[in-house]
Amino acid sequence: xxxIDLLARFCxxxxxxxxxxYICADRAEAHDSVVALCADxxxxxxxxxxxxxxxxxxxxxxxxxxxxxxxxxxxxxxVAETGTLALSWGPGRRRSTPLVPPVHVAVVPLSRxxxxxxxxxxxxxxxxxxxxxxxxxxxxxxxGDIEMNLVKGVHGPGQVHVVLYPAxxxx
Amino acid sequence: MPDAAEVPTPESSPPxxxxxxSTALLGRERVVVTRPDxxxxxxxxxxxxxxxxxxxxxDQPGTAATHTRLSGKNREQNDGGWPxxxxxxxxxxxxxxxxxxxxxxxxxxxxxxKAEANGVVVHRAATPDDAVGIITGIARxxxxxxxxxxxxxxxEEMHLNAHLEENGIEVVETDLGxxxxxxxxERPSHIVGPALHKSKAEVGALFEELAAERxxxxxxDLAAFARTRLRADFHHADMGISGVNFAAADTGTLTLVTNxxxxxxxxxQPRIHVAVxxxxxxxxxxxDLAVLVPLLCYAATKQKVTVYQTMLxxxxxxxxxxxxxxLHLVILDNGRSSIVEGRYREVxxxxxxxxxxxxxxxxxxxxxxxYGSVYGGPIGAVLTPLLANTKQGRDLPFLSSLCGACxxxxxxxxxxxxxxxxxxxxxxxxxxxxxxxxxxxxxxxxWDSPRGYRLTMTAARLAGPLLPRAxxxxxxxxxxxxxxxxxxxxxxxxxxxxxWFTDRRPR
Lengths: 171, 507
Hints:
The complex is a heterodimer of chains A (171) and B (507).
Chain A: H1 3-16, E1 20-23, H2 27-38, E2 42-45, E3 60-61, E4 70-73, E5 77-79, E6 84-88, E7 103-109, E8 113-114, H3 117-126, E9 133-137, E10 142-143, E11 151-152, E12 159-165
Parallel strand pairs in A: 1-12, 2-3, 2-4, 4-7, 5-8, 7-12
Antiparallel strand pairs in A: 5-6, 6-9, 10-11
Chain B: H1 50-59, H2 63-78, H3 84-102, H4 104-117, E1 121-125, H5 128-141, E2 146-149, H6 153-157, H7 160-166, E3 170-173, H8 176-183, H9 200-211, H10 219-236, E4 239-242, E5 246-248, E6 254-258, H11 262-268, E7 272-278, E8 282-283, H12 289-301, E9 308-312, E10 326-332, H13 336-339, H14 355-359, H15 361-366, H16 377-386, H17 405-409, H18 416-431, H19 434-446, H20 450-463, H21 478-483, H22 496-504
């Protein structure tokens, strides 16, 4: 499967889970889009991720994720089959960033797309040393606990935006 | 409960730190508890006989509406059977779970070694009381006052919340459905949808009592009310308690599968995290998640995957900006090490999707609380009598029509209908006295021959008018309780079908 096929499948799966995908021409445009999505809001940024490098000067950063309007992260891999983002934790990649603020924005170069959910589990298992943990997230938080009505943004973010861009050649 | 912050402290003693109290449960004392005792969070030690409870459950307002909702969910969930790609996962999932059970202790030993190497403190609890002791011990040692909790059926087995509250520790359920039933002082009526038995209007009324003000009543509004209150508790709690969906023996990874994100909050924000799992939650390999997570999600909610899978290896390391300082894993036995040795071993293959409950016509009709046990529905009717701390509930296997829908609905192919039949036989063997056995034998002998059969029919027809219709209500003593949910057969017409058939038979 080509990168473009993976991208198309990822966008469809993410949309089915109520997430929003943005396809950018390159890394610079992707970062512009992240800045635009954060508007004037306060931001926590996972500065320990290579894909977010260079963003910190352009955002209104706050230390405490509980004070942030938006959490901006990179991902380990993104799953085309399900629209899932896999985020492992470590220095500069905190548990709270994609969780506590009401909006999550993820930056994803196409090189990080994998075909299946099983591929994402493999990618997690292959990390050496293993991280203290990881979050797999597919779209915004939801609940069906009140009469099975679908409600979005119950505890986790109510919006998930994924900004995608090609890194290197596209086949 | 006395509030430490309000007690004046003498000059000499060290200043009392401001007590951390739950925001989510503010106003809880205003809620008027209306549920019957058999729906209570803590199950009464001597519950009424099943026929009484099920009769009362049918008369509860709301039972019919719940039946309609559950039937809709059942059609959505189970009509058309398993699609081919999920059917393939089902075969593999069933095998992985049985592989686990063939060497449960071996897998638990591997899990323990790996988790400890990852910095997790592993505790084994033989009984629910042991588990309560371990968890309250951790809380006390760390001066814990406020606990946020994400869904865990294992903690229901030990009535953990009540025990923590007795120790002066506030506990807040954070799954929206669990929060609803906690405020109503009920227990979950379904494994995955704890408040499936509540209508939107009931939830609205409950939250208005809690808030002591009018609230907008759309599902979004009610969820937003809970979100705001629970966020304060996520931020300030000292300890998080969660369940575990799968624990991988090869890496020590604990996986939680949720849609709301509360498990992520509970396991990442407080300084201590305690994960509680019954021993069968172990799986051989992390890779097995690729089969079991999509299988669980499809069986529970028909999603490809839920919104969140939280995978935990250990507490935060040096250099990490957040996460708990301590991670404890409590592994509960409560009779499971005996179950795994016996002929009901496969019941421990269960991955707690709740689909057998949705598929069960009896469950849909009487509701989950009417089982009078932590686990309701077919899985509850099998598991409850086998668990060690269940003195009551041995009669639960009779709360089934044996239609077989639970087997078809089970993602790991547990032969629940066969087990229900075998457990009924066990129950009979264990409980029936000599006179009863003698009566069954006599009945069997009588109906062995056409002549005996006709004789009993005639006797029943003649005896019918002699028995007053209210005879069951006039039984003395314990017999009256037994009879309250039952009706006498219409013996006045005994044999009428045979007579009708004989009349019409072509001669």
